[in-house]
Design a protein that fits this description.
21 strands; single chain; six-stranded mixed sheet; 15% helix; alpha+beta; 6 helices
Length: 322
């Protein structure tokens, strides 16, 4: 099953089913995705229409909870290595996770608004939407609770992060609203979904040029079953909880200046490229996003068919015009 949420002037939008080729849509028979997760049923299509990504919200325009992990420990290791810090062994056995804002997400085509001095960065991630998960659920039970999978652009304001983390109380200002792919896909209908991981190439272009072709499956230290079980260790998770993977990262990404190959290379955020530049060249060279920059994130199946639609966002001038 593929679903999307259309903008209709209401906070939760209107749920539609989407054809596998992302060309057609029809009413889902229940008004919202949250309603579907809470137990409403999907009915057969009664009206056919052309699917248009430009009028889509993120599949869940708002959610009860958004928990973002760091499943790709290679990313964390690079961050610490770039500043000369050792990484605790526990990072390989106990996932990092923080609670992000979820009262409103951006649509996949909304502008990115922020002061360039804040260090605006994209982060290409995989995310899942869950059914209810009981406190104490193990990995296998947690995997069964995954209802939909989607892509995420989890924005970070890199220059605000050090001051916030120094307070010892986590992210707030440095993590603005995230955007998700137009379409969410059930695991059973998702090519490359195996053992709680999505195996495939996340594709990122910056200003219409290839920036990252990063393999989402090969270097994922913690699968989504482990991430969900970690989140549910001391609490129940409501239906409609979103769990993010953290920035997709590969151990062998070629280093600075490496030509991006179809098999997987490049980066899923600017910070990681800057980390590698610092390690190899002594200082970062690549700037963070600037007004007018365009970020595109998508994934194709082995036949080249787009799976989730496109996250396609442009950085708006600051201050944002009315």
């Amino acid at each position: 099953m593929k679903v999307a949420t259309l903008k209709n002037g209401q906070p939760d939008g209107a749920l539609v089913c989407v054809s596998d080729d992302l060309k057609r849509m029809w009413p889902a028979g229940t008004p919202t995705l949250q309603g579907l997760l809470d137990g409403a049923t999907i009915t057969s299509p009664d009206t056919d229409g052309l699917f248009n990504e430009s009028i889509c919200h993120s599949p869940l325009p708002r959610a009860y909870q958004f928990l973002d992990g760091s499943a790709y420990v290679n990313h964390v290791e690079l961050v610490r290595k770039a500043r000369g810090a050792d990484m605790p062994d526990s990072f390989w056995t106990d996932p990092l996770m923080y609670q992000g804002g979820s009262d409103s997400f951006m649509s996949p085509t909304d502008p990115i608004i922020g002061n360039p001095a804040w260090g605006i960065d994209f982060e290409a991630e995989i995310a899942v939407i869950t059914d209810p998960v009981r406190m104490g659920a193990d990995r296998d039970e947690a995997l069964e609770a995954i209802r939909f999978v989607m892509l995420c652009n989890d924005l970070s304001l890199r220059n605000l992060i050090p001051t916030e983390l120094a307070k010892g109380f986590g992210f707030v200002q440095s993590k603005p609203a995230s955007a998700f792919s137009p379409v969410a896909v059930s695991p059973d209908d998702l090519p490359g979904w195996r053992d709680g991981k999505l195996h495939g190439i996340v594709r990122i272009d910056i200003n219409n040029q290839p920036y990252g072709r990063v393999n989402a499956g090969v270097d994922m230290t913690f699968d989504f079953g482990q991430l969900i079980a970690h989140a549910a260790k001391t609490r129940d998770l409501a239906a409609g909880t979103i769990i993010g993977s953290g920035t997709v990262s590969n151990k062998l990404n070629g280093g600075p200046g490496k030509t991006i190959a179809a098999g997987g290379a490049g980066y899923a955020c600017i910070a990681e490229q800057r980390m590698v530049e610092t390690i190899v060249e002594g200082a970062p060279q690549t700037p963070f996003l600037q007004p007018g920059d365009r970020v595109q994130i998508w994934m194709s199946d082995p036949k080249g068919k787009n799976i989730f639609g496109n996250i396609d966002q442009v950085v708006s001038p600051w201050p944002a015009s009315a």
